[in-house]
Amino acid sequence: MWTDTHCHLDASEFDADRDAVVARARAAGVSQIVIPAVVAGNFERVRALAHAQGFSYALGIHPLYVMQAREDDLGRLDRMLAECRDDPRLVGIGEIGLDFFVKDLDEARQRFFYLEQLKLAKRHGLPVILHVRRSADPLLAGLRRIGLETGGIGHAFNGSRQQADAFLALGFKLGFGGTVTFDRSLQIRRLAAELPEEALVVETDAPDIPPHWLYRTAEERAAGASSRNEPGELPRIGACLAGLRGWTPAQAAAITTRNAHAALPRLAALLPSNG
Questions:
Q1: Per-residue pLDDT reduced to its tens digit, 231-243
Q2: How confident is the model at residue 114 (pLDDT cuts 50, 70, 90)?
Q3: Which of 42, 39, 33 shows the shortest CA–CA distance to 4?
Q4: What's the Cα-to-Cα distance from 31 to each of 14, 53, 200, 267, rounded to whole Å?
């Protein structure tokens, strides 16, 4: 069975057919989905959705949304983490991090929210799910500065091998999704093939980062073609990873799920056999 370590199942793109999306994922062999929050306003929504569907969730403020966030949102996050301390479906803090790809974002504000959320992760003893986009080195610097020891996942990792090794040394796993299915994604495919097997987890980032078979050009999207990704695509994405590694799909599912449990330890207790 597969574990999707990053899926925004609460996104409005799924409002019309969310139950059908979940049914397709389960039919495809996806047994667990981690739903990360992106703003304080959807903390309750992701928690409720995870409980309603039998999945898991993380709470955090995404770097692309820090401009609209209030500093009191950090207090709100702290309070909710305390409130949900014994909730087995709360598996981490995320999606947090830094994004130096999107222009016109306040870098200082991003860094402030990132470091403050790392402090909360340390205080509450939870792993983190990191947004990594042209920001691997400052993310690593923040982890070392705060002294976070709970590790987590570098979501949609796209850095260098040296940066990957640095994350692994700090107890992180690295997420691979739709991008690994594109032949032209040479660096990411090379990392997926060459990193130690214990480094790898799989994800969809649905409804975003569609695999190559769902990719649409701007012209196609303008004409009404959908490029929405969904968690039911994970086994096919995982099969691409398996092909790069010389694994069977079943081996890829077992290895990446084991790694997900190592990165987010509360996931193991949510296995179907455990009720």
A1: 999 999 999 999 9
A2: very high
A3: 33
A4: 19, 11, 18, 11
Angstrom distances, CA of residue 57 to CA of 1, 9, 89, 191, 247 = 19, 10, 6, 27, 29
Alpha-carbon distance values, 272 to 13, 26, 30, 226, 248 (Å): 27, 12, 11, 32, 23
Greatest pairwise CA separation for the chain in angstroms: 49
Sign for the CA dihedral angle at 208, 37, 135, 240 comes to negative
Banded model confidence at residue 190, pLDDT cuts 50, 70, 90: very high
Reading the block at residue 86, the tokens are 């014994």
In angstroms, the CA 61 to CA 107 distance is 15
Q: Report the candidate in 159, 152, 112, 171 with the shortest Cα–Cα distance to residue 135.
A: 159
pLDDT confidence of residue 275: 38
Residue with tokens 């701007």: 218
Amino acid, single-letter form, for residue 242: A
Cβ atoms of 99 and 67 closer than 8 Å: no
Confirm if 142 and 114 have CB atoms less than 8 A apart: yes
DSSP 41-68: GGHHHHHHHHHHHT-EEEE---GGGTTT
Instruction: Find the length of the chain.
Output: 275
- Which tens digit of pLDDT belongs to each residue from 134-175? 999 999 999 999 999 999 999 999 999 999 999 999 999 999
